[in-house]
Design brief:
Elements: H1 2-13, H2 23-33, H3 37-50, H4 66-85, E1 93-96, H5 102-106, E2 134-141, E3 146-153, H6 166-185, E4 188-197, E5 206-217, E6 220-229, E7 235-245, H7 248-252
Antiparallel strand pairs: 1-2, 2-3, 3-5, 4-7, 5-6, 6-7
The structure holds octanoyl-coenzyme A.
Octanoyl-coenzyme A is lined by residues 15-16, 102, 174-175, 178-179, 189-192, 220, 242, 244, 246, 250.
Amino acid sequence: MTRSVGRIFSGFRCFGSLPFGNPPLKTQCSSVLFRTTSERTLMHALPKIFGRKPRDFSLPNSSWGKEMMQLYNHYNRLSKETTEGQEDHGEQWTRLPSYNRTLKYATGGVYLSKIIQSKARLFTRNIRDPGASFEYVIFFRQDKLKCACIFQAGHLLEGAPGHVHGGAIATMIDTITGTHASLLSAPVMTANLNINYRSPIPLGSTVLIESILDKEDGRKRYISCRVTSTDGSKLHTEATGLFLSISVSHLLKR
Ligand SMILES: CCCCCCCC(=O)SCCNC(=O)CCNC(=O)[C@H](O)C(C)(C)COP(=O)(O)OP(=O)(O)OC[C@H]1O[C@@H](n2cnc3c(N)ncnc32)[C@H](O)[C@@H]1OP(=O)(O)O
C-alpha cells in the first residue's frame, strides 16, 4: 500500500509530463519512476500488458487545421532548435505528451483502484473522434515560467450558437494552468479560478492559450492565463488561478 502510494506520488510529479513521447521528459520521469530493474522490466512489458502503446493525443491528426498546424510547427521548431543548439535554456520549449489515462500510464500501470476507476478517462481526452471536441497541445518553457497551448475547438463544444461553450473554455484554462502548476509542484488541485470572457470564440477556430506564473507562496501557486487569437491580436478570455499542492492522502479522503 505504502509503495503504491509512493508510486502514485511519483506519477503525479510527472502529471503533465509522462514517460512516453518526448525524450527530455522521458529522461526526467523515468529517473523518478523506474529505478529498479523490475520496474524497468515492467516498463518494457507495458505495451504487452495494455495491448498497445497508448495514443498520444497531443500529436497532429487529420482534423488539425492550417492555423493549428502552423502554430504547432512553430513551437516544435523552437523545441528542436534549442534542444539541438543548446543555445538558450530559458527559451527552450518542450511539447507535453497527453494520454487519456494520465495517472495509469505515468505510474507504469501501478495505481489504486480507489483513485482510478477502470472506466475513468481524462475529461479533455475522452472523445476519440479526431476534431470533435478538444484538440490541443501544450508546450512549456524549460524554466517552467510559461506554458503555451494551441487549442482547436470542435463541433461538440458549442455553447452560444456557433461559438465555444464557456465551460469548455474554462476546462481548457483549468487544464493549462493546472498542468503548469503541476509542473512546478505536483500534485496540485485547483482552489480558485477567476475567468473574464471578453469576446466569443467561433466554433472550429484555433486559439492560443498562454499561462504565466505570477507568484509562489508556500503551497500556493498563482497562475494567470490569456486566451487570444493565434496572432495574439484579439483577446478572448483572461483568467487567474490558485493551485494548492496537496499530499496524495488528500485524494484518498472520501
Ligand atoms: C492534466 C490535466 C490537469 C488538469 C488540472 C485540473 C485540476 C483540477 O481541476 S482539480 C479539481 C477541482 N478542484 C477541487 O476539487 C479542489 C477542492 N478543494 C480542495 O480539495 C481543498 O479545498 C484544497 C486542496 C484546494 C485546499 O485544501 P487544503 O489543502 O486543506 O488547504 P487549506 O488549509 O484549506 O488552505 C491552505 C491555504 O490556501 C488558502 N486557500 C484554500 N482555498 C482557497 C481558495 N479557494 N481561495 C483562496 N485561498 C484559498 C487558505 O486560505 C490557506 O491560506 P493560508 O495558508 O495563507 O492560511
